[in-house]
């Protein structure tokens, strides 16, 4: 179809609500950033046959087992952060589920094909099982770990070429984790009353997520016939209690805003109420991600180099219709999986006084089991636990709850998430680690312009500590064989950030494209009136949790950072100076209005700004060592694989 036919009504000047599937955000290229499209590529894929088969060592041999790399590099070493709360990990997962969901190969009945203990001539063609070494300490009774390749997808122009993978979600930061990525998703989630989303009524407390009527193998486990699994915009909602709690918070937030808009604009239609509420919620998700989350993840130099800092006043003028916001394969498959190292082996609950509750359960015993959220006060206890419990440091170490016990079932051992990450990178044709450092301009030149060949060269060119290089040399034949995920994870963090230079390069460019290529970005002219935008800039995750909880009384204002008596103390949820409110008075429509656009009634009173609050707090360093590479605007010309800068 012609673009003007495909994009009605979004082609009309001034149409202000984005599509559910992300299409027609870009009117010249309507499919950019839309759901059910191939991931973008920052670098061409690296397949052994140039088309589909996984790459091999530079010697021509098979690459080492992903499980062997995992046990050699991603050991279970507990190194809790001194400053970061587990809420940062939880927001990262929630954010990831707004941006990426790779389609997996399934059998005709939607079951996952089995690859181990199946004769090679009878196995599914997309089987790529992970070899388990004979001397594996934990998996000592099996030589094979299940792994099925991501399903291939036609290329955007329907030409022949290397295998590509499908993103089932929109690439825009558009609340698809809350609202879904298709019209059918959204229709099933809406209440169609007062602009609200569907919910489960619970006596003596606020609502829970609606019931999931049908689910497939592995999506949810019920411990009682009286309970139910949850339905949300993303199918992974039941994966672990912290994620289900975050989904619940944003369901409540949507419905709270809808109630407030109904009160100040009773004349609005149900559709306008819903769309205006959705638009506000999307803006709040964008603001929290770029104002609270990304600065801690990337640090000030990377934020500045990629133009990620939000404006404090006025409108953003850098929207560019030539920028494709489609999420890149490398972001979804490697770089944004950094958060697996932040995960703790247990998810604490806390009471309203922020005290740890005595009953603790291993994380692997709570995966895919949302039953506890039905208990009175459980969403509050999980939220307070996430805001109080320290995350693990961002390093190469990953808890054995994820590397040995992932999705374990009664009488069976689990899977290894780190090995899956490595194998997934090979499945998707990600080039090796050094290719990414090279493309980002991060390989230090060797003396006498020597080519990088030895492990000593690897250490010199990357600055990675010798003991970490030794881990790689014990399993890989060549420095050019090292997979991106373990390579990026062993890097020291950039100054003021969490991830190292290579992941900073990839993540920074991804979020630059997501912002600059989004016609509906909340700071863009025409999206919100100035008073509305000023109100939205007071959004914090702490305020959202305060407003949507059952009985939380106090939180630290900067919720991704641990409470600090002087700089980030617990504040009352009714202390609007410490935890500012988002006033919706700017959405009050004048009685004389003749269209659906809210007309500002009066300038709302000035409120304390989150910006002034956040800038008074500088988090202590995570450790004594950081990578001394400093990202500056001049570095951008080195990122030559990124054509959209």
TrEMBL record:
Amino acids binding heme b: 340
A cellular-component GO term for this protein: extracellular region
Source organism of this protein record: Allacma fusca
Keywords linked to the UniProt accession: Heme, Iron, Metal-binding, Oxidoreductase, Peroxidase, Secreted, Signal
Chief location bin: secreted
InterPro entries registered for this protein in UniProt: Haem_peroxidase_animal (IPR019791)
Gene Ontology MF terms in the entry: metal ion binding; peroxidase activity
Protein name: Peroxidase
Superkingdom classification of source: Eukaryota
Keyword Plastid: no
Pfam families: An_peroxidase
Protein localization: Secreted
UniProt key word Metal-binding: yes
């Amino acid at each position: 179809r012609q673009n003007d036919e495909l994009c009605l009504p979004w082609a009309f000047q001034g149409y202000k609500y984005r599509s559910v599937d992300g299409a027609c955000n870009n009117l010249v290229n309507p499919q950019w950033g839309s759901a059910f499209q191939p991931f973008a590529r920052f670098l061409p894929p690296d397949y052994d046959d140039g088309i589909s088969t996984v790459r091999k060592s530079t010697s021509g041999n098979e690459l080492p087992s992903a499980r062997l790399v995992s046990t050699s590099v991603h050991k279970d070493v507990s190194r809790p952060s001194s400053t970061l709360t587990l809420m940062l990990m939880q927001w990262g997962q929630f954010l990831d589920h707004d941006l990426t969901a790779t389609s997996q190969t399934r059998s005709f009945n939607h079951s996952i094909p089995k690859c181990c203990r199946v004769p090679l001539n009878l196995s599914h063609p997309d089987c790529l099982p992970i070899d388990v070494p004979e001397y594996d300490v934990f998996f000592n009774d099996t030589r094979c770990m299940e792994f099925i390749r991501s399903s291939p997808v036609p290329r955007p122009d329907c030409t022949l070429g290397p295998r590509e993978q499908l993103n089932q979600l929109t690439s825009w930061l558009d609340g698809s984790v809350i609202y879904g990525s298709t019209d059918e998703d959204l229709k099933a989630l809406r209440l169609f009353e007062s602009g609200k989303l569907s919910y489960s009524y619970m006596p003596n407390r606020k609502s829970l997520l609606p019931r999931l009527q049908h689910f497939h193998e592995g999506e949810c486990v019920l411990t009682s016939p009286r309970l139910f699994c949850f339905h949300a915009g993303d199918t992974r909602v039941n994966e672990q209690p912290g994620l289900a709690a975050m989904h619940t918070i944003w369901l409540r937030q949507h419905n709270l805003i809808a109630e407030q808009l109904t009160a100040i604009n009773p004349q609005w239609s149900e559709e306008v109420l819903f769309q205006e509420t959705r638009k506000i919620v999307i803006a709040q998700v964008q603001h929290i991600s770029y104002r609270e989350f990304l600065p801690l993840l990337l640090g000030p130099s990377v934020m500045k180099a990629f133009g990620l800092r939000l404006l404090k006043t006025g409108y953003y003028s850098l929207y560019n219709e030539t920028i494709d916001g489609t999420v890149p394969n490398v972001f979804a498959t490697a770089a944004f999986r950094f958060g697996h190292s932040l995960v703790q082996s247990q998810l604490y609950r806390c009471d309203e006084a922020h005290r740890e509750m005595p009953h603790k359960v291993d994380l692997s015993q709570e995966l895919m089991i949302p039953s506890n959220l039905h208990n009175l006060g459980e969403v509050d206890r999980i939220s307070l636990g996430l805001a109080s419990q320290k995350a693990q440091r961002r390093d190469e170490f990953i808890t054995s709850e994820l590397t040995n016990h992932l999705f374990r079932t009664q009488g069976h051992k689990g899977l290894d998430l780190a090995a899956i990450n490595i194998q997934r990178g090979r499945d998707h044709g990600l080039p090796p680690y050094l290719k990414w450092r090279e493309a980002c301009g991060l390989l230090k030149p060797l003396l006498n312009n020597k080519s990088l060949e030895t492990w000593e060269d690897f250490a010199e060119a990357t600055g990675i500590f010798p003991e970490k290089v030794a881990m790689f040399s014990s399993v890989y034949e060549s420095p050019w064989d090292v997979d991106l995920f373990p390579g990026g994870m062993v890097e020291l963090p950039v100054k003021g950030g969490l991830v190292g230079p290579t992941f900073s390069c990839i993540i920074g460019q991804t979020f630059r494209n997501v912002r600059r290529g989004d016609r509906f970005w909340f700071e863009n002219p025409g999206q919100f009136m100035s008073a509305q935008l000023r109100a939205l800039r007071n959004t914090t995750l702490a305020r959202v949790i305060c407003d949507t909880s059952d009985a939380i009384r106090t939180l630290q204002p900067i919720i991704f950072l641990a409470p600090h008596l002087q700089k980030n103390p617990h504040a009352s949820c009714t202390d609007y100076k410490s935890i500012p409110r988002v006033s919706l008075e700017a959405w009050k429509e004048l009685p004389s209005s003749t269209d659906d656009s809210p007309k500002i009634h009066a300038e709302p009173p000035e409120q304390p700004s989150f910006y002034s609050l956040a800038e008074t707090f500088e988090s202590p360093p995570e450790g004594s060592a950081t990578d001394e590479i400093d990202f500056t605007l001049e570095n951008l010309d080195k990122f030559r694989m990124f054509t959209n800068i």
